[in-house]
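In keeping with the milestone schedule agreed at the kick-off meeting, the structural modelling team has produced records for the first pair of proteins. Each record is given below as a sequence line and a structure-token line. The laboratory manager (R.T.) confirmed that both were archived under the project's standard naming scheme.
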Amino acid sequence: MRILAKDTPFLLVENIDVHYGAVQALFGVSLYVQAGEVVSVLGGNASGKSTTLKSVLGLVTPSSGRIELEGRPIHRLAAPDVIDLGVASVPEGRRIFPEMSVLENLLMGAYPRRHEKEQIAKDLEEVFLSFPRLAERRKQAAGTLSGGEQQMLALGRAWLRRGKLICIDEPSMGLSPKFVDMVYEVLFRWKAAGQTILLVEQNARIALELADRAYVLQHGHVILKGSAADLAADPMVQKAYLGAA
């Protein structure tokens, strides 16, 4: 087990730049997440928030700066190696396996710990209790589920990974208010259970209700950061993201 110094964040993103060819997407982005914390990254389209998450997951390699997980550099690792270190992902667009059943999709999340048969069975039952619709449709092809049900499936799959850190990209995108409430009800339970979460979200209102702290990105720069309560009360955030006049 890696022993962290008292002041070492669980996840550290320090001064990263990211380029897509000649186009620079991130400019010196820094953030951190402590163990057991929920941190939200907010911003509009093309703000750089999803690129930040992809950098943590090893899907994008920063051109400069560093990323550490539990004090270990990960910014040069490929995505499978990052996942092997205990990171779970709920990607934008869900990325479920449409031809496979709901149950098969869920068990794919548990594959890295496939020898823990008893614990997987308990975790699977927990997922079905959290998302009764998945229990009802466990034998159904995942591609036939509604968008909200597919988001539930992606969350359940990540939970079965039992990651030390869960990275979630735009969980409310394209969902009806009813499904958004159902998804966030589960995320609030994960928070209460002490799960460490890095959340990228356009729905600033609900993200700030869930988060302990948050960062606001604009055009690849961090323009605001602080406690979720302070940012929710910030006039700039209220006007730009919370619909205040």
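The second protein of the pair:
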Amino acid sequence: MKKLALHWKIIIGMVLGVVLGLILSSAGLNQFTSDWIKPFGTIFIRLLKLIAVPLVLVSLINGITSMTDISKLSKMGSRTIGIYILTTFIAVSIGLVLVNIFKPGSGFSPETRQMFAEKFGSDTATRLATAESVSKQGPLQPLLDMIPSNIFESAGDNGAMLQVIFFAIIFGISMVMIDQKKVAPVKAFFQGVDAVILQMVNLIMEFAPYGVFALLASLIADFAGDDPASAIDLLGVLAKYSLVVVLGLAIMAFGVYPLMLKLIGRYDVGKFLKGIFPAQMMAFSTSSSAATLPVTMKQVENELGVHEDTASFVLPMGATINMDGTSLYQGVAAVFIAQVYGIDLTIMQQLGIVMTATLASIGAAAVPGAGIVMLIIVLEQAGLPVEGIALIMAPDRILDMCRTVVNVTGDASVCVMVEQMTGHPNEEQAATIAQKV
């Protein structure tokens, strides 16, 4: 008998969680839900938080050390990383603009918002006090906060993830600059640890259907209270949130990338979209940039005329450190959760989300479910309730498929741009393409 795919299990868990939440709420068993079902959702959240720091640290170090020599790091590497960071920054910014314009999290009834204000009032007061103390600090305090004084202490605090990222970047660059024979054992160690951590992610995601079931059951029960009909508010808001995310992803895939290809790469946009289409379909079906990588490399080399040296350097790095779709989604999700909880984020806090999402995307594993782990980092860095992740788990599988398409499209776009900028034409492949056209 064929094993049921994980995403179907998650969808089933989502549906059953909503149904059970409505049933228990109608029966007045909200306390039972809180005591006997919600803890399993909390366990799932803790498992995600457990893996966040080691996943970012090891993935980021491996991503940087994939550049095998300092010459690559200087020319092709610097241009590749520069464009990757630029597109990620643009993606997060687009997400924040859209979520502030459409405000999907503010669509609840006044009664529901009042319930949230009362239930989470103490947490909100604590965050406001923290925000007030931060406002009294100097203008360069955010820069100081990025530099750790004790990496082991920072690694024990998910809220200090920028410090872990800073350490990983310095550590990875140092490894690239040292004689590769000397660092070969260290590189092999981190590659081995990376494989173990990715397997841990796989194991944790096996628990995802049950975690989603428990989270949504308790969430629906909390929302509905004594009136199950109020849960309709939640479903409507989730639909609006999903549309905002999809709109942002569409702007990146069909607006930003084509424009950059035209202006920076001087490349035919129609030819690019036609050539990369098979990789986009693979990305949509697998939700994994890593699983799609062989197809992406084949299309970029054979259909887009990119030299093998460029593709073999830029694309694997992109699958590791370039997650534009994931970053956009994280920006929208973070502000959406803040809106739901009635938390007003300042411009500085939202800029902090941009920075954290941009840097965290560098350490995001190219596997399904990694975006949720990265979102934990963004939420904690912004001081937002991590429990709000339950709100967005329901539509996450479909959105994950869409944002992986953007991730792969972004990798291919940057690969073409770097090829054009470095003047490294593949004449044989270019001639083949010319004959096809």
